[in-house]
């Protein structure tokens, strides 16, 4: 089970990332581009999801493209989901208390790679062991 502290630790370990509070919600950005964020459901989303609406904390994360989003949704619907608000948008919602730490690490890092400038990602990737 992951927590906001885990998201913070993973995100802030990535180069040139900062944490912000916007409308009382946590956000992590690279070079001013949002890549993961706290995303509680809105009342209309709760109504639309009905009994399937998660009760715990929800993380929003950018993905590379819509196909990547579809793959995640199909891969583990107990962890990943979306709402109509994100239709046509390359982002996924995550039940934070259902994702393992290794999967969270991969998700946050991939979101960062998708939003960081090319030179920064190339430098980061070249320095990996």
| Unreliable spans | none
On the 0 to 100 scale, the average pLDDT is 96
Number of strands: 6
CATH class: Alpha Beta
What is the annotated CATH architecture? Answer: Alpha-Beta Complex
What is the CATH topology?
Aspartate Aminotransferase, domain 1
- Helix and strand pattern: HEEEHEHEEHH
Q: Widest sheet: strand order?
A: 1-2-3-4-6-5
Strand fraction: 15-25%
Rg from alpha-carbon coordinates:
14 Å
Structural class computed from helices and strand pairing: alpha+beta
Q: Tell me the count of domains.
A: 1
Quick one: biggest sheet? 6 strands, antiparallel
Shape field: globular
Distance between the termini: 27 Å
Tally of helical segments: 5
Helix share bin:
25-40%
Topology:
Blueprint: H1 4-12, E1 17-22, E2 25-30, E3 33-38, H2 43-49, E4 58-62, H3 66-75, E5 80-81, E6 91-95, H4 101-115, H5 118-126
Antiparallel strand pairs: 1-2, 2-3, 3-4, 4-6, 5-6
Helix pairs in contact: 1-4
